[in-house]
Design brief:
It is a single chain. With 208 residues, the chain is of the alpha/beta class. The chain has one domain: P-loop containing nucleotide triphosphate hydrolases (Rossmann fold). The protein is built from eight helices and five strands, in the order E-H-E-H-H-E-H-H-E-H-H-E-H. A five-stranded parallel sheet has the order 2-3-1-4-5, sandwiched between helices. Helix 2 runs antiparallel to helix 3, helix 3 runs parallel beside helix 5 and helix 4 crosses helix 7. The two termini are 30 Å apart. The mean pLDDT is 92.
């Protein structure tokens, strides 16, 4: 009797500027997929493994050269892909990840001026055969996102503490991504009500 081939899982990433509501939605998306019978792995970047979490703490707290910062991001990402993302996809699980390489393009590339060629080269080395199947880009204007961050009541990391010019460069990179790759990257208006956002996300996920 032939053994059925295992179907690769789907890789969904959530992206967007800080304060756009990205992290708010990942839990209910995971629950929605589980109710549909999927095994779901939820993770984040930088992070997702013990090593990557240590690198995350360093990157978020310690100012450093943007190129060094970018390399640390990809060190964490390579470990995360090898130990968590790739094995989960291989066994048929769906992976929901809070940020991936698009964040590096937006924050270190557009935000801090790191050369795109270097980012692309590091991406090829860290995850040569892996790209998201779907990317949800949560978007909000600076006036809204900054107000949300201030209202959170928690200490902001050094990226969240950046000024409007940095924010606008990062946001511009995300909007450019949605224009360049409309089949993969979908803009979600993070200023809409929760019910509207959920309906939009449900509609997009149903296409996978």
């Amino acid at each position: 009797m032939a053994v059925a081939e295992k179907i690769r899982g789907k890789f969904i990433t959530l992206e967007g500027v800080d304060g756009a509501g990205k992290s708010t939605h990942i839990a209910w998306i995971a629950e929605r997929l589980r109710k549909a019978g999927r095994e779901v792995v939820v993770s984040r970047e930088p992070g997702g493994t013990p090593l990557a979490e240590k690198l995350r703490a360093r990157v978020l707290a310690e100012a450093m050269d943007p190129v060094a910062e970018t390399r640390l991001m990809f060190e964490a990402r390579a470990d995360h892909v090898r130990k968590v993302i790739a094995p989960a996809l291989a066994r048929g699980a769906w992976v929901l990840c809070d940020r991936f390489t698009d964040s590096t393009v937006a924050y270190q590339g557009a935000g801090k001026g790191v050369d795109r060629a270097l980012i692309d080269d590091l991406a090829r080395k860290a995850h040569p055969d892996l790209q998201p199947d779907l990317t949800l880009v949560f978007d909000a204007d600076y006036s809204i996102s900054s107000r949300r961050l201030a209202a959170s009541g928690r200490a902001l990391d050094r990226f969240e503490s950046e000024g409007r010019a940095f924010f606008d460069r990062v946001r511009g990179a995300y909007l450019a991504l949605c224009e360049a790759e409309p089949r993969r990257a979908h803009r979600i208006d993070g200023t809409e009500t929760l019910s509207i956002v959920k309906a939009k996300v449900e509609e997009i996920i149903a296409t996978l």
